[in-house]
């Protein structure tokens, strides 16, 4: 075959391949465009149907909501703060004499009572010193007894002329000297007894023993710390309040006969940690750096729920408002101009009513100081569907509003969407 025919065949083959490729590339696009065009028509029809449904199926009936009436009750007013639990007494036990530590009679973390022997130092040296002091005292007491007997006999002989009066003065002075010696001996014996008693280390308070710092067998001195005892029954809670509360706290503290109740709560404010405590001290100065003043409350802590160094939330009751207006806290909404509620009107419509919340009442209610009167009804559930002037169907607390039934337009829309999915699936098959 000549070179000319070879080139011609190559050109023809290239043209055939290019044509096939062109048709393959453009045929799906056309099909997709056709399908897209058909889908667009379907969407348009669906949109028209939706618009038609929205236009004809709009629900203008009353909105079901839950309402509750305001109530009056005595409301305690609390000031809140973060407090620190502090032990009533912290005592670091140091020996009052030196010596070898024989025994330790407590377990770490154990409760000890006042007067318990918690450690023992080697007493032998101090016992010997005490015995020596007692023996010296007895020796001088015997000498005193002899001197008194000699003075009595010689006084009887003076009148008979057997003893000179000058010697009587000597006997009398010897008795006085020996009496002073015996008194000094008694003091020395008591001092030795005190040193001997110091070999028993006694707990000065009721408390809980911490981690010990020495072991039996060590030689301790008066600077050696053996253990720290902490008294936690009763126990203190120290907290701070802003200085603007000082006047109200002081007035309540003085007028309340020093019986202002204090509640210590856990870190999540879920429940009280102990029985109610009472305010004990209001500090005599304001911290200029923080603008706060300190207070101290005392708790009996019978179940030891409060522990030294623990952080707690504190509520100090400063007064009780008589006849406070109370509503559920979920009725209060927050708007750009402050708090408000939806108030039920006599024509079964609602109006936005601004309110002033004076404080919390328990976990689910608040006290309102302005904006509502006794007996007013406020919406507690369903506010998200309301606007001022909305017609409502008032339900009692605990009644669940029924879900609105789907309109005919919604049913038609769901039907078309379901049919479209089935049609697409069949086309794919």
Description:
This protein folds into four domains: 1-33; 64-73 and 324-395, conserved putative lor/sdh protein from methanococcus maripaludis s2 fold, CATH 2.40.420.20; 78-85 and 231-322, Beta Barrel (Elongation Factor Tu (Ef-tu), domain 3); 91-220, OB fold (Dihydrolipoamide Acetyltransferase, E2P), CATH 2.40.50. The two termini are 51 Å apart. It is 36% helix and 34% strand. The strands form four sheets. Strands 2-9-12-11-10-13 form a six-stranded antiparallel beta barrel. Helix 1 packs antiparallel against helix 5 (408-428) and helix 2 runs antiparallel to helix 3 (165-197). The chain is of the alpha+beta class. The chain has helices at residues 3-56, 124-158, 165-197, 246-255, 408-428; strands spanning 63-69, 71-93, 99-104, 111-112, 117-121, 200-202, 207-209, 219-220, 227-242, 261-265, 277-287, 292-299, 311-328, 333-335, 338-344, 350-354, 356-361, 365-370, 377-381, 392-395. The chain has five helices and 20 strands. Mean pLDDT is 82; it is low at 28-58 and 419-429.
């Amino acid at each position: 075959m000549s070179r000319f025919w070879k080139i011609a065949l190559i050109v023809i083959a290239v043209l055939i391949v290019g044509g096939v490729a062109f048709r393959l590339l453009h045929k799906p696009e056309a099909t997709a465009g056709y399908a897209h065009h058909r889908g667009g028509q379907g969407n348009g029809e669906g949109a028209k149907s939706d618009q038609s449904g929205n236009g004809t199926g709009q629900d203008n009936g009353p909105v079901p909501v839950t309402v509750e009436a305001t109530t009056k009750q005595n409301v305690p007013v609390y000031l809140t703060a973060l407090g620190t639990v502090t032990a009533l007494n912290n005592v670091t036990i140091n020996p009052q004499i030196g010596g070898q530590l024989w025994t330790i009679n407590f377990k770490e973390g154990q409760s000890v009572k006042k007067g318990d022997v918690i450690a023992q130092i080697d007493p032998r040296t101090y016992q010997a010193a005490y015995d020596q002091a007692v023996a010296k005292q007895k020796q001088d007491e015997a000498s005193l007894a002899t001197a008194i007997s000699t003075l009595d006999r010689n006084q009887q002989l003076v009148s008979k002329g057997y003893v000179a009066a000058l010697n009587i003065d000597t006997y009398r002075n010897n008795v006085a000297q020996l009496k002073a010696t015996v008194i000094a001996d008694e003091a020395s014996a008591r001092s030795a007894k005190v040193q001997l008693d110091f070999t028993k280390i006694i707990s000065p308070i009721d408390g809980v023993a911490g981690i010990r710092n020495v072991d039996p067998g060590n030689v301790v001195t008066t600077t050696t710390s053996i253990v720290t005892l902490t008294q936690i029954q009763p126990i203190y809670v120290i907290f701070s309040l802003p200085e603007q509360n000082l006047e109200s706290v002081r007035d309540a503290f003085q007028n309340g006969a020093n019986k202002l109740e204090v509640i210590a709560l856990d870190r999540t404010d879920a429940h009280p940690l102990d029985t109610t405590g009472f305010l004990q001290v209001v500090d005599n100065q304001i911290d200029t750096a923080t603008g706060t003043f300190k207070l101290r409350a005392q708790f009996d802590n019978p179940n030891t729920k409060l522990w030294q160094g623990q952080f707690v939330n504190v509520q100090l009751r400063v007064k009780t408002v008589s006849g406070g207006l109370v509503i559920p806290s979920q009725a209060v909404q927050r708007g750009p101009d402050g708090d408000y509620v939806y108030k039920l009107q006599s024509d079964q419509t609602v109006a936005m009513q601004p309110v002033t919340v004076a404080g919390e009442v328990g976990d689910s209610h608040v006290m309102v100081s302005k904006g509502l009167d006794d007996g007013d009804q406020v919406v507690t559930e369903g506010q998200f569907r309301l606007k001022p002037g909305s017609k409502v169907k008032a339900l009692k607390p605990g009644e669940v509003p029924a879900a609105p039934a789907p309109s005919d337009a919604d049913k038609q829309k769901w039907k078309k969407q379901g049919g479209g999915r089935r049609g697409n699936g069949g086309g794919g098959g």
